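Dear colleagues,

For the upcoming journal club I promised to circulate an example of a predicted protein-ligand complex. I picked one with fe (ii) ion because it came up in last month's discussion. The inputs are reproduced below in full, followed by the predicted structure.
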Amino acid sequence: MGLTEVQKTLALLYTNRELREKFLSNPQEIAKDFSLTPVDIEHLTALSAFHLDEFANSLQYKRLGEVIKVLSLTEKSLKSEFSDLFLEFTNNYLPSGVKKHRDDALAFTKFIMSKKNIPDWCKEIAEYEATRIELGEANKLLVIKVFRYPLKQIIQALFQNEEINIRKKRTLAIWLKLPSQTKWYHRFLTLFGS
Amino acid sequence: MILDNLPTLGAGIGFRDEFIGELFLNRNKVDFLEIISDHYIDPHPIKTEELALIRKYFTLIPHGINLSLGSAEGLDKNYVKKLAKLINDLNPPWWSEHICFTQAGGVDIGHLSPLPFTWEAINVIVKNIKEVKQLINSPLILENITYMLKIPGAEMSEAEFISEILEQTDSGMLLDITNLYINSINHKFDIEEFLAQIPLERIVQLHFVGGYFHRGMLIDSHSHPTHKEVWQLMERLSKITKLKATILERDENFPKFTELLEELEHARSIAFNPSKERAMSWV
Ligand SMILES: [Fe+2]
């Protein structure tokens, strides 16, 4: 009761778009579903719809900004579709804790890889960036991933805003670290005859 | 008051990975660093190395963002333990957190969210602060946040709310003058009235940076040069408080590092070396 319930309700309204939309169209009805006192209900229903929406949108925008920082290549490859997909993704995923932005980015790459209508080379870029993020926590000295596209050339083209060559060419991405060091060495190896 | 013996640190900057190279090239132009505590809790080995490096050269002030001091359901004990260990190991002159809540019912909001300005909220946050203070040796200073949304049911003004918390917990204040300016624009209140209601002697440190306007609201984006009104506010506060530190809190849209250094130098000239001509030539 009291502030505990009010805060639980607010946290959901800020982060759950479906609930927020229902609440804004019929606040009295939705507020009844929480263990709120009549005074709390009165206060919550007096919340400014415009500002509630603005705050909720700013939270999503902040998440998007943090994810772009670590998935910049994926963002370049998907262009404006990146933010549309992210919006869709946030309907069903809310990260928590001190590593929430990292977890958000990793979960989003999985979401991208699970989508049917995204080009395979874009999914490989997402997978490549996910591997880079996971390296930080990896208790390994060597990581090798096989990709179907020439990622080195694709990444260069993305950086230079050039047209992407989407012909398949099997590529190994190799990360190597020396014991007791934190720095990873990285190379691509394009395989012949693939 | 415990705050009387705090050292004067000068003009510092919120440490961000983006400018670590330039920071070390300009070490003598940055008086100290504020670090986000959460970046060094359960850290990646690279962050551990980074912390060891920056603490060798700078005084560090830990700044928390996930403690959720205003949570009515209480604090996350596991998080508090880790935070306390980090801060006690660093042994800083002080550390800071926000007057807000960031989680409830297992939901991490992902941002600093406003509390209702009520006695119930004061009782909650005071209890939580007292609990944390028992575990952390360095003094705590508390920061005012921006809020897009006002929680209905307020029993007092924001300034009265903050003052009550500071007094009941004997804490210092980290006055974010950008947040104060933004709130005064978005919620149309008089900054002078706010200043008249808070215990000025408790202000230890200032935060400053710039935001931008969006759909009629000034956004706390930490992404632009400091507004001229904020510089004027810093000037005003330097005359009525005994500032120990000012921190430029830039997070986005980074300009050349020299521009950040110019802002630091300007803050230094206003807050710690008042020379009217230099200060006023900026705005
Ligand atoms: Fe701040």
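Two points we might discuss: The pocket of fe (ii) ion is lined by residues B 143, 176, 179, 207, 249 (CB under 6 Å). Chain A has one domain: 48-190.

See you all on Thursday,
B. R.
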